[in-house]
């Protein structure tokens, strides 16, 4: 059994930000694709359809920012309270 002494806050936040940016890319592509399909089937291609494609570059930015902030808060809280709730042991295979 290995023990975690603390989480490196900034490294964890950067990692989580990259992961959430990738999730944002997928979410933006799905949003744009589903919006375009819906507008094409209803015959209402408009400026809203073009704006839906802006979700592809914008959603990753917002997802990454949210991932960074939430990981910073989560890592700081973990480092602060892990000793009180005794959540420092993790099993690894050797």
Mean pLDDT: 84
Question: What characteristic shape results from the CA principal axes?
Answer: elongated
User: How many domains make up the 3D coordinates?
Assistant: 1
Q: Name the poorly predicted regions.
A: none
| Helix content, binned percent | over 70%
Largest sheet: 2 strands, antiparallel
Topology as a string of helices (H) and strands (E): EHHHE
Gyration radius over CA: 20 Å
What does this structure look like?
With 94 residues, the chain is mainly alpha-helical. The protein has one domain (9-88). The protein contains 3 helices and 2 strands, in the order βαααβ. A two-stranded antiparallel sheet has the order 1-2. Helix 1 runs antiparallel to helix 3 (55-85). The longest helix has 34 residues, at 9-42. It is elongated and about 60 Å long. The model has no long low-confidence stretch (mean pLDDT 84).
Summarize the structure in short.
The protein is mainly alpha-helical. The protein has helices at residues 9-42, 47-52, 55-85; strands spanning 2-3, 89-90. The model has no long low-confidence stretch (mean pLDDT 84).
List the helices and strands and how they pair.
Blueprint: E1 2-3, H1 9-42, H2 47-52, H3 55-85, E2 89-90
Antiparallel strand pairs: 1-2
Helix pairs in contact: 1-3
Record keyword descriptors for this entry.
94 residues, mainly alpha, 3 helices
């Amino acid at each position: 059994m290995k023990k975690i002494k603390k989480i490196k806050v900034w490294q964890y936040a950067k990692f989580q930000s990259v992961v959430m940016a990738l999730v944002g890319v997928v979410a933006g592509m799905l949003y744009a694709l589903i919006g375009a399909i819906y507008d094409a089937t209803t015959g209402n291609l408009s400026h809203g359809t073009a704006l839906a494609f802006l979700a592809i570059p914008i959603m990753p930015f917002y997802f990454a920012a949210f991932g960074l902030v939430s990981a910073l808060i989560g890592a700081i809280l973990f480092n602060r309270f892990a000793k009180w709730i005794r959540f420092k042991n993790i099993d690894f295979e050797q």
